[in-house]
Amino acid sequence: MSGKYDDLREKGKVEKKKNQFIKFFTIILVTVLLIEGSYAFLSLTLFSEKKVEVTTGVLATSFKDGNAVTLENAYPMSDSRGMATSP
Fold this sequence. Notes:
Blueprint (H helix, E strand, L loop, with lengths): L1 H46 L4 E5 L2 E5 L5 E4 L6 H6 L3
Antiparallel strand pairs: 1-2, 2-3
């Protein structure tokens, strides 16, 4: 009878080691993915050129780093005159 229990104990030990290996591997994999994702996000955020240019018809709008919108080749006009113009 003790042979049966020894076999069950050995199988239990093998299963326990297998589960520990899977947990360890999963933790390492998740850690590596988090580090890679963080590095990719930071390198994209810190080292990329943040300049967007939109051109429609005669209006060119540039969006660069900062809070200002730059309108190139535009001239000042009152609101009432601007509302009266046709597109």
